[in-house]
Amino acid sequence: MGAVIDRKSFDKISGYLEDARKNATIIEGGTAKDDVGYFVAPTLIQAPKADYRLMCEEIFGPVVTVWVYEDAAWTETLSVIDRTSPYALTGAVFAQERGAIRETTWALRNAAGNFYVNDKPTGAVVGQQPFGGARASGTNDKAGSKINLLRWVSARTMKETFSPPREYTYPYMSEG
Question: Please, which pLDDT band fits residue 175 given cuts at 50, 70 and 90?
Fold first, then answer.
């Protein structure tokens, strides 16, 4: 794992780790050293509740925060995910049941600008597919593809008929 970009980022991530030591469970990692560069160990944190700070804020460091939900609370959990954070960059669901995938895709339609099913939540092909978040995470289509152009235009369809119709009825409407 490489160093984080600068002192400001290091200090911010270190603050998240300190918060996790006090208010969550660090499962792995959790160390940060700035003696040579700004190194933060890859860290896995278990959140005590869905709206725990590290579940709601974008960290931009080698920190993953998880929250364990009860199986019986699946549908409620999707709602919690949808309303927990103002950010909505990337999300993923891993499931074998097609019904669960459909439910998740619908319930989280506004919760991630990039959404993956049974795949890692990274890897948009820049220049070939849209990439960007929703809500406070971006413009939905930045650095993506021709779809970005649609942000700046108002698409309109025009039809001009040079041989106007002589009748207004349809043949199926006539008496037999």
Answer: confident
The angle that helices 98-107 and 74-84 make with each other, rounded to 10 degrees, is 30
The 10s digit of each residue's pLDDT in 17-72 is 999 999 999 999 999 999 989 999 999 999 999 989 999 888 889 999 999 999 99
Closest CA to 137 of 87, 91, 90: 87
- pTM for this prediction: 0.70
Query: Higher pLDDT residue, 30 or 168?
Result: 30
Q: What are phi and psi of 71, to 5 degrees?
A: -55, -40
Contacts of 12 (CB under 8 A, 6+ apart): 59, 61
Where do the domains of the chain lie?
Answer: 1-68
CB 40 within 8 A of CB 63: yes
Q: Which residues contact 16 (CB under 8 A, 6 or more apart)?
A: 53, 54, 57, 59, 61, 63
Scored b (16 or more CB within 10 A) or e, 107-134 reads bbeebbbbbbeeeeeeebeeeeebbbbb
| 101 neighbors 89 (Cβ within 8 angstroms) | no
Cβ–Cβ contacts within 10 Å for residue 30, how many? 19
Find the helix or strand (DSSP H, E) in which 80 lies.
helix 74-84
